[in-house]
Structures are given as structure tokens and as C-alpha cells.
Amino acid sequence: MSRFRIAAFVLMMATLGFLAGVLAGRLVELDQVDDRLAGHNSRLLAHALRVVQESHRLMAAATHAAADCSESDIATLRVLLFNSTFIRDIGRIQDGMLTCSAAWGKLPEALQLPPPAFTLRSGLVLWVGAANIVDSRITGDMAASRDVVVFTAPGAFEGFPEPGSGIDAKIVTRDGTHAYRRYGRTHDLHLPAEGNDGYRAGAFAPERRASACAPESGADICVVSRLRSDAWFQWPAMVLSVAGALALAFLAGLCVMWRLHAGSVKTDLRKAILGGGIQVHYQPLRQLATRRLAGFEALARWRTRGRDVPPNLFVPLAEAMGLGRDLSRHVTSQALRDLHGRLRKNPALYVSINVSAADLKDAEYRNFLLDAVSERGLTPANVALEITEGTPLSDGHVLAMVKTLRAKGFKVFIDDFGTGHSNLNYLAEMQADAIKLDRRFTHAIGVEAAGTLIIDHVIAISRELRISLIIEGIETEEQARYLLARQPAAVGQGWLFGRPVPIGDIASE
Question: Is the previous residue joined to 380 through a cis bond, with omega within 30 degrees of 0?
Fold first, then answer.
């Protein structure tokens, strides 16, 4: 082959590599846009459900009271309003007239409600962007059921979509005929005709759309959004173009494999979390001295494409995708559903659940836990919340939530103790019920002198502060004897006492 033909061939391959890099970069850019939309929809839908659930909860609570607008009745409405997050006012209606409310008190004369925007099949009547009945200078959303009407706070959805995101979005009924909220240009933005599985836009289509709906058994609510991306020569395209010109075959194949793999894993994980595909296994915790059962730790497990994915891989990925809250709440609900019979039969038992900093920053997390426990006929004492040692207590919301949950009766454990930057101030601020010593120190017993010294130090700390001690990773009788001799009151966890198993494989005791 002549030099000219070699040069022409190299130039042609370099050109193809450049073009392939441009196209691959464009696909990466659009994939990132799709992920942004999916994350936005997940957050907006979850927030909308919190607002709806709070409205329903307040209306249900107010319905049980005497609907007479007496002083005690208005005081009750004010207590409900004070404990709400997204509701600005709650009032009584009779024959389509507002007679009193928590904010305005008993009205001198009843006021006529405006015509509603629409009525759901459940009978719930809604007003969208309506002028306030008492003061027309105030506008907002309202919902009414029977003799109760609630007024949503104007700032209930503040921050959606994220400022500067360029996202157009709507919150609509499941059939798409009525809109609760609109953001941006939405006159031609509709739910997909093929159902609630999202849009099937072309791979390179600049306008990306996505939709998500609440479960069929839940609220009549969906979110649909779109974002346009016309940028071709962003950093991914530039880098991949140059690299493709240098190594067409290798880099193109690598990029395609990476994209397919990353996309499939994310898709599988999203379906597993939102569709109930995450399993929960339970590992027993036992008293060292008697081997008597003290409780269980609930552990998330995921199996996809014929293999088990370790939690230390899929849990961080779920959090990065904005699904950490959904995963945490699924594990909590499933654990209480599986174990409520055992916990009611033996109130001394508890189930421990891992809690992230994101959960503790969620203002609705307390209500979620209280509702989940109450629905199963349990008490907060049946639930222990495992908080990692690295949780930032400097965040006032986190520390306040920890103290609130503990005051409600939930146990608080410090998980993986000894692996972070622990000190006595941290323990004092957390006010924990127990500390869980990380398994790596247990494995050092009889092997590393430094590890055993740390164990003795942690035992001394737990005694000094009168905090219970739970020791992870106990796998041999030698380890159990060593720990029993130093802290007979400790609780043990590890393969010696039982491996994590599905609910059906737990032995009856």
C-alpha cells in the first residue's frame, strides 16, 4: 500500500473517529439531560405527594372534630395548622360557604367559595391559583372535602424547578386533563399517549421529555417535564472527538460499552427501587451473655441480571440518582411489614434501620416514621435508627431531627463507630442509645494488638457514658469469649449468631 493510500486511510479513520467522538459526546450530553429530568421528576413528585398527604391528613383530623366553629373547634384547627408545613390555613365550610378558619377565626358572615377548578373521582374538590375568600389580594390553591377546606401555602413548591434549570414542568392528574401546577411553557406539554413510562424521543432529539406518576393505589398525581439541549460541542464532545481521532476502534467501543452498561444499571436500579424490586434481609442481634435475641438489622439487597450487587455499590448509586430517600423508605416500610407480628408479640425486640443524612434533613421524615409505626400497631421503641458516625451534626436540621426522633421514643444508634472522627463531644451531641463497633476491629481480635486496644478503649467509653454497646462482625467463638469477658452486657451481631436472611428463613424463637 502506498504512502498516499496509507495517509488517506489514516485520515479517513481519524475523521470517522472525530465524528464518532462528536456523536458519542452528544449522546453523553443528552443522557445527562435525561438523568436531570428523571431526578427532577422524582423530587417534584415526591414533594407534591408530601403536600397532598399533609392536606389529606389535616382534613381527616379536622373531620373528626365538632364542625361548629366554636372557640374550641377553632383552637383545634389552629393546632393542626401550627403542626403543618405546607398549609397556610384550614377552615370550615357549610353549603359552599366558608364560616371560620384557623387564620381568620369565626367570620362575621359566611363567605361564598368560588367555583372550583375541578373535582377528582375521590370527591376531593380543588381550586388552582384562586383568590383568597377573605382577602382577594392573596392567591393560592385550595382543597375541600366534606366540611373542611385547606389552603396551600403560596411557597409550598418554592424551588421547583431549580432556578436556572430551564425545565418546563406540570403537575397533573393521572389522565392529564387537569393541572395542579405549571412551570414555564406548558401549553403543549402533555403526558405520553402510551402511558406513564415516559417519552420515547429519538436518540439525538434536542427536546427531552420525561414523566412520572404516583403508584396506582396512591394519589391521582403525575409529573411531566421537558428540557431542550442544543449544545453539541460541550466538554464531552470535545474530549471524545480528539480521543476518537487517535484511537477510533478502541475508544468508540469503550464508550458504547460504558454508555450501555451505565444506562442499563441505572435503569434497572430505578425500576427496582420504585417498583419494589429491592429485597430486605434480616440479621439477628443477640445478647452476648445469653445469646437471647435482642432484635434485627434490616439490610437492603438487590439482585439483577443473575447476580447480587453489593450494597456498597448500589446504595451510593441510588443516592446519586436522587433515589436514596425512596430506597430508605422502602426498606423501612418493608421491614415493619415483615416484622410487625414478631415485634408486637415481643415488645422488647426492635428492628434497626440505616438512616442517611438526607433522611434527617427531610422535614417529613418524622411524620413518615410515626405513620409507618402506627399503621403496624407498633411503638417507636420497636425501631432503632442507625446513623453513621460521619453524619454532619453541624447541620442544625440534622441534629434537631435526631433529638426530635429520640424524644418521640425511637432508639438512636451510632453505626460503624471508630471508622470516622469520633470523640466524646460527638457522642454527647448525638445523645445516642448505643454505639455499634465496626467489624474491622472485631476481626483484629487475636491478630492485631492495635485493634484489641481500640476495642478496650471503646468499651471503656461506653461504660463511662452509660451507652449500650453493639459489636459487629462476630464470626468465631474465640471473638465472642474475648468480648464477653470484657463487656458481658454487650449485644453481638455477626455470622456466629446468624447471617442476613429473607423474612421466610428467620427461625422462630
Answer: no
